[in-house]
Amino acid sequence: MTDKDITDLEKQIAELTTTLNEARSKLTPVPVPDYRFQTLEGKVSLLDLFGGRDVLLAIHNMGQGCRYCTLWADGFNGLLPHLESTMAVVLLSRDPPALQRDFAGSRNWRFRLASHGGGDYISEQTVMSGVDNMPGAVVYKRSDDRVFRWSSAVFGPGDLYCSMWNLLGLAGLGGDAWTPQFRYWTRPEQLDDGGENVID
User: Residue 44: which of 88, 109, 105, 102 has the closest Cα?
Assistant: First the structure.
């Protein structure tokens, strides 16, 4: 394998990605119910989550117990102002609203948050048939008071939605060679402050 072979492969991937996005732009939207969610401010509907916009990106996050979902959300958080310049964005999980907010605060996430509570929404709007808490994203569009599912994607190691996989690939590492962690601090053998009351 030469540098030219790699460049040719990258060109093919870019062309296929363009083809994929063109195919998505031709999808037929499917009407969906106006689901209900819980937030710290109370109950909201799917229509409410649009915040007056015509397009909504709903990020399906498995909750604070998933290191991979945390990795994706950490990355999307940096893109949030760019995303919100063109569409509404919400991070959905089954965690209760207070737990969502505490965990988001610990990660410095700026997402709007809502809880589906593991109910009808996530079982009917899953990104993978037969799996009701799969990480991914769904794009919805609205027309007046009706909501339509436009497209969706599954998140997983090696996907198109987390740049970490491509950066690992530059180093010759596959997705199976690395697992994300919530934090990367390693306790030294000896702590200069005495080492009492340390929370890993």
Answer: 88
Q: pLDDT at residue 127 above 90? A: yes
**Environment class of 35 (CB within 10 Å of its CB; exposed 0-12, middle 13-18, buried 19+):** buried
| 36: β partners | 45
Distance, in Å, from the CA atom of 156 to the CA atom of 165, rounded to the nearest integer, reads 10
Q: Sign (positive/negative) of CA torsion 21, 37, 157, 200?
A: positive
CA distance 117 to 115: 5
Beta bridge partners of 152: 138
Q: What is the pLDDT of residues 81-106, one digit of tens each?
A: 999 999 999 999 999 999 999 999 99
Q: Which amino acid is at 13?
A: I
Pairing of strands 88-93, 30-32: unpaired
Only one residue has tokens 């593991």, namely 118
Q: Are strands 136-143 and 55-60 parallel, antiparallel or unpaired?
A: antiparallel
Strand partners, 45: 36
Instruction: Report how far apart, in Å, the C-alpha atoms of 68 and of each of 102, 146, 155, 180 are.
Output: 18, 33, 9, 6
Strand order in 30-32's β-sheet? Answer: 30-32, 146-154, 136-143, 55-60, 88-93, 112-115, 36-39, 42-45
pTM higher than 0.85 for the full model?
yes
